[in-house]
């Protein structure tokens, strides 16, 4: 039987990863995966794809897609304030 020290914070983060993706400009394909994803003040351009996959919730606030794609997969997807997707860009949602 082994004994050792457990880093409780690391174990908790691994079990329930909450991602805060704030004040970002996405110019290349960017995958995000976690328990909960909160994206705020995000711009997507250069035909890039922001892919978000969460086991509980994805919350998006002030998202601006100049030219690109957002994919979001979660049981609950919410939008707060502004969300801009012009013709030629894509939004793909699934649960």
Describe the structure.
With 95 residues, the chain is mainly beta. It has one domain. It contains 1 helix and 6 strands, in the order αββββββ. It has one helix at 8-15; strands at residues 18-26, 30-44, 48-65, 68-73, 76-84, 90-94. Strands 1, 2, 3, 4, 5 and 6 form a 6-stranded parallel beta sheet that branches. The longest helix is centred in the N-terminal third of the chain and has 8 residues, at 8-15. It is globular and about 35 Å long. The mean pLDDT is 85.
Which descriptors apply to this entry?
65% strand; single chain; 95 residues; six-stranded parallel sheet; 1 helix; mainly beta
C-alpha geometry: globular
Number of domains: 1
Helix and strand run: HEEEEEE
Described by strand count, sense and barrel closure, the largest sheet is: 6 strands, parallel
Query: What's the mean pLDDT score?
Result: 85
User: Which residues form runs of ≥5 with pLDDT under 50?
Assistant: none
**Roughly what fraction of the amino acids lie in strands?**
over 45%
Number of strands: 6
Spatial gap, N to C terminus: 42 Å
Helix content range of the residues, please?
under 10%
The number of helical runs is: 1
